[in-house]
Amino acid sequence: MRIAMIGTGYVGLVSGACFADFGHSVVCVDKDANKIAALHRGEIPIYEPGLDELVAANVRAGRLGFTTDLTAPVGDADAVFIAVGTPSRRGDGHADLSYVYAAAREIAAALKDFAVVVTKSTVPVGTGDEVERLIRDARPTADFAVASNPEFLREGAAIRDFKFPDRIVIGTSDERARKVLGEIYRPLSLNQGPLLYTTRRTAELIKYAANAFLATKITFINEMADLAERVGADVQDVARGIGMDNRIGPKFLHAGPGFGGSCFPKDTRALVKIGLDHETPLRIVEAVLAVNDNRKRAMARKVSQALGGQLRGKTVALLGLTFKPDTDDMREAPSIPLVTGLMDMGARVRAFDPAGMTQARDELPEITYCEDAYHCAHGADALVIVTEWVHFRALDLVRLKQAMKQPVIVDLRNVYRPEQMSESGFAYFSIGRAH
Ligand code: UGA
């Protein structure tokens, strides 16, 4: 199959490289000439384990190319995927669809023989209808179908998620579109990836519903963690105890500083707006958003309490800044309100992150950036584990204690066991566990 992938952001680049790896012929298109030039030089604009090798291998094999001009690849394609950004619109939280619609207009001008235009970007219900209308208005005689094929990959595990998916959702009622997409994903059905065919609107809603449900699961266990701290219970065991029930499942029950990233906050906000637009307020999702925002802000108070309620003149060392490990992404990271809160309370902040410091410098210019965990701990009154990078899971506690001014650890990801920490002479505070 011949595929044109519009947008070389996270979803576009990973999907394009994986499709090429299946043996399809893929051209990735982006308006940003610098990005395309970098890709031609073999430089990958995002941090994703394994992506550079995957891109290089498929470029070498002649199955993957990059260009700024969509005319030829769209004209040749069996399927054109729209994988451009849908950021939160400034002011109202709605998804900003201007990039999607601009792509649709350009695709319309370039279509030749039958092609399926597929929205892979996360888009509100009804966007596929609008894309179809736009293309039809621009080219009344063009032969095309519009389908929705949402993406469920996680940053840091994107290639694995793409190649071994729990499901592939294909939203279209057009027979030819079903056939083309069925063929494109055929290699995955060999990996037992089940194809779920739905209507276009249903597929669009599945994406938001999945992210909102996962965000709800995290927020639920975070509230249980607060209660566990008060009543002297252990939230890790609560998560295990409820997760062993097949109806609940063990995943996404890890309590922490609140969810962040480029998807959950943006998509839950957009879903709330979609609900309001259709006179169906989504109270649970609204509550999830509010609870999560409060939680991120509360983390600075947790650090302050660990230091006796006084941060003025104290030095706080943060390990991890990105919203989760294995990414350099700082978008909506819990570290951002944490740093702001700590500084507002008069603390000096030092930090180390294995991949996110370049991005973090733009977002958080006023903190001291360090070379590694031990350099970061130097002279600190408290050390806070903010992101559970593998680098922070087996720290040399003796060395850490020697480096610090006071042996206080606030572990926002429950990486360590409380007993181990008290044996090592640390005052240890974690999430949802009595101390
Ligand atoms: C999320 C979904 O997991 C993907 O399925 C989806 O495709 C993607 O959004 C998207 O819409 O594009 P991602 O944002 O990369 O993926 O990251 P997750 O691993 O889901 O983590 C999101 C946030 O939840 C992080 O801040 C993480 O620390 C937090 N989290 C996750 C918890 O606090 N506890 C958990 O148990 C799991």
Automatic annotation (TrEMBL):
Keywords, ordered alphabetically: NAD, Oxidoreductase
EC category: oxidoreductase
Reactions catalysed, as given in the entry: UDP-alpha-D-glucose + 2 NAD(+) + H2O = UDP-alpha-D-glucuronate + 2 NADH + 3 H(+)
Enzyme Commission number: 1.1.1.22
Superkingdom as given in the UniProt entry: Bacteria
GO molecular function: oxidoreductase activity
Functional pathway: Nucleotide-sugar biosynthesis; UDP-alpha-D-glucuronate biosynthesis; UDP-alpha-D-glucuronate from UDP-alpha-D-glucose: step 1/1
Residue ranges of every copy of the UDP-glucose/GDP-mannose dehydrogenase C-terminal domain listed in the record: 317-418
UniProt similarity note: Belongs to the UDP-glucose/GDP-mannose dehydrogenase family.
Descriptive protein name: UDP-glucose 6-dehydrogenase
